[in-house]
Design brief:
Blueprint: H1 8-11, E1 12-15, E2 21-22, H2 49-58, H3 63-66, H4 71-78, H5 84-99, E3 111-115, H6 133-145, H7 149-158, H8 163-166, H9 173-182, E4 188-192, H10 202-211, E5 218-223, H11 230-236, E6 241-247, H12 252-258, H13 264-277, E7 283-291, H14 299-309, E8 316-321, H15 335-345, H16 351-365, H17 371-385, H18 389-392, H19 394-400
Parallel strand pairs: 1-3, 3-4, 4-5, 5-6, 6-7, 7-8
Antiparallel strand pairs: 1-2
Helix pairs in contact: 6-7, 15-16
Length: about 400
């Protein structure tokens, strides 16, 4: 393997919110054109023919040009952003070497990367209907109400896959049994959603991971922080190593707008409960942020909140960016506004500011210039959610009011 090769197709099985068996979570279902095998096709096994094709591309002399399915990582690396491929290699290569495991020669599933269906209790403004049943419902409402052709086209594109009819794969008994089979000998698993804690099978699945003949030792879980129970905390404390991630985009009413219809006071309370309940010695707390058009200049607020929340416990921040295909992407914002966002972090050397500079640079390089769609979308969401953009995000409003 050369320096551009990726270990993920050789060691990882990823199940998408639609139940697609794919190489990794960066592959979006819309880019797979619905042709890849799903976990509901119970006869399908890993590696599928499609994953074998990616494996072959990664073993070639030019992995970047021979794996178009992996364009998201290649694009990030071209922009100077550390990609998922690079982050995965940094974490897992030392572990595989310690185990004496050769990812190519011994190729088998080492990690299950599980998007546990699309059931979710939120309709986040930067999300996709593949990841949220709630957003799917609300986009149907917005599509029926809007009088704007451009917005109607966007909502309809998000409704092409009929989640209402097809349901969620985690509720399919045969597919769920197939998932348990995939996990039988697995010791490392990553769970996202949807919102995993909202899924009615979540507690059963966590108990299975702990009680099977070969229990899971490493669990990573990503949650929106709107749900807390003592039972869940007690179960999570039983894992040998836990990486617990909560997604936060802003604070107070701004968070309620972006991650609607969350309630900030409840989320703040849940976060404090998790910090208190989860054991310090085996839990790594991480906070997921997604850079979008509204929160891009406001990350100082996030950092200040986290510092006040847990002065004695390290909360690592992970920062991602919304891709240009979504209206909420910074790539679709006014150019002067993007320059303003860059100026907020310019000249700073702390890690969060450095990451923000990288991600804002990415937005400038991949500007889609779909400002009209973005501003109409944000204003329509504001009306739908009965909230005021000018009050919540005055800087964004000032730079974009000429498009409204």
């Amino acid at each position: 393997m050369n320096s551009k090769s990726c270990l993920i197709p050789f060691t990882n099985v990823s199940i998408s919110p639609r139940g697609t068996i794919r190489a990794c979570c960066i592959q979006n279902d819309r880019e797979l054109y619905g042709n890849w095998p799903k976990i509901t096709d119970v006869a399908a096994n890993w590696p599928t023919a499609e994953i074998q094709k990616i494996q072959k591309g990664m073993l070639s002399d030019d992995p970047e040009n021979n794996t178009p399915e992996c364009i998201s990582c290649w694009r990030e690396e071209q922009s100077g952003i550390r990609s998922y491929r690079q982050r995965y290699s940094k974490i897992w290569i030392p572990i595989f070497e310690e185990r004496g495991y050769d990812p190519v020669k011994d190729s088998n599933i080492q990690i299950v990367d599980l998007q546990f269906g699309h059931l979710c209790n939120l309709s986040c403004t930067m999300c996709d209907t593949d990841f949220s049943s709630n957003l799917y419902i609300n986009y149907k409402k917005l599509a029926s109400k809007t009088t704007d052709t451009q917005l109607k086209e966007y909502y309809d594109s998000q409704l092409e896959y009929d989640h209402g009819t097809k349901g969620d794969w985690t509720t399919d008994d045969a597919a769920y049994a197939k998932l348990l089979k995939f996990c039988k000998d697995i010791e490392s698993i990553r769970i996202t959603g949807g919102e995993p804690l909202y899924n009615p099978r979540f507690v059963h699945f966590i108990k299975y991971l702990l009680e099977k003949d070969k229990p899971v030792k490493f669990l990573e879980i990503v949650t929106n922080g709107t749900i807390y129970t003592d039972e869940i905390s007690d179960l999570l404390n039983r894992f040998e190593k836990l990486v617990f991630k909560i997604s936060i985009e802003s604070t107070e009413k701004r968070e309620e707008f972006i991650r609607w219809p969350s309630v900030w006071s409840e989320k703040d309370s849940n976060l404090r409960k998790f910090i208190s309940a989860l054991k310090t010695e085996n839990t790594e707390f991480r906070i997921n942020h997604t850079v979008n058009a509204l929160n891009a200049p406001l990350f100082d607020d996030n950092t200040a909140y986290l510092n006040s929340l847990s002065p004695n416990r390290r909360l690592t921040q992970d920062i991602h960016i919304v891709e240009a295909r979504y209206p909420m992407s910074l790539c679709n914002s006014d150019e002067d506004y993007i320059d303003y966002c860059a100026s907020v972090y310019q000249g700073r050397t702390n890690i969060v500011s450095t990451w923000m500079q990288e991600r804002i640079s990415y937005a400038k390089r991949h500007r889609d210039r779909n400002i009209s769609l973005q501003t109409k979308y944000i204003m329509e969401r504001a009306e739908f959610q009965n909230m005021n953009i000018e009050e919540l995000f005055p800087v964004y409003f000032e730079y974009h009011k000429k498009y409204m």
